Structures are given as C-alpha cells and as structure tokens.
C-alpha cells in the first residue's frame, strides 16, 4: 500500500490514546478548553488528540497525564502487541470506554472517586460484583 496515504490515517494506537484522554478528562469533569489551557495548546488540538487524528508527542502526553492525574502508562494499558492494525488492539476496552462516556458511567465514577477510604472502595467493588452475579442467576 501507499505509505503516504496511510500516514495521514490515524493509527489504532493514536485513536485509543485519544479515547483514553477524553475518557479521563470527562471523568474529572474537565472541559477541552481547560485541558488545552493547562497543556498550552488550543482546544481544537485537544479535539484532534481525542479523535486520534493528531499524534500526541511524548512530552505533551506527559503533560496531559499530569493534568489528568494518571501515569503515562494509563494511555497504553491493556494494548495488544505492536501491530497497530491488529483487531482488538485493546481487548475489552470498547465496552468500558463506551460506558464511562455515558452520563451514568460518569456519575458512577465521580461518586466512586469521592470515596477516599480504600477499604470502603473495595467493599463497593465487592457489592457491585455480588449484585452482578445475582443478575446472572435470573
């Protein structure tokens, strides 16, 4: 294939990194403009990062990670091997990012993040798992 044409298309990695930037920004209730200001880019550039249409450079990704209170590794966790064209590059992440992007997912995550005690958070996770298993028994 013609590399010049493919070079303009976003890679699966760029799309996934962008999706995770958007997800974490929304979980924190931060606007694109606020993130853009904190990392010294335009909000349009943040939009391009989130769509995966522009690659995020290493130093910029570090700045974004700092603003979003996550390690840089957050943007790459769970990705399959180096083959960017591989289907299922991020196994199981589509459902998760889809849910977190909904109003219900954001509300649930914000409420969970408001619980500071790690023991209580673990009990909440256990409760939700128990409720989910009961639903499967019906």
From TrEMBL:
| Pfam family name, one | HTH_3
Look up the domain of life of the source.
Answer: Bacteria
A GO term, aspect molecular function: DNA binding
Please provide the record's keywords in A-Z order: Plasmid
The answer to whether keyword Cell membrane applies is: no
Note the coiled coil stretches, chain numbering: none
User: SUPFAM superfamilies, alphabetically?
Assistant: lambda repressor-like DNA-binding domains (SSF47413)
Limits of the HTH cro/C1-type domain: 21-75
- Does this entry carry the keyword Chaperone? no
**What is this protein's record name?**
Transcriptional regulator protein
């Amino acid at each position: 294939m013609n590399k010049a044409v493919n070079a303009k298309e976003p890679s699966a990695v760029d799309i996934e990194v962008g999706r995770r930037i958007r997800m974490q920004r929304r979980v924190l209730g931060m606007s694109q403009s606020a993130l853009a200001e904190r990392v010294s880019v335009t909000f349009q550039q943040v939009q391009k990062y989130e769509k995966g249409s522009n690659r995020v450079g290493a130093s910029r990704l570090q700045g974004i990670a700092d603003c979003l209170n996550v390690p840089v590794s957050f943007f790459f966790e769970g990705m399959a091997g180096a083959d960017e064209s591989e289907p299922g590059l991020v196994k199981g992440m589509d459902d998760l990012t889809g849910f977190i992007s909904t109003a219900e997912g954001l509300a649930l995550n914000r409420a969970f993040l408001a619980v500071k005690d790690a023991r209580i958070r673990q009990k909440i996770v256990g409760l939700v798992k128990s409720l989910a298993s009961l639903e499967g028994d019906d």
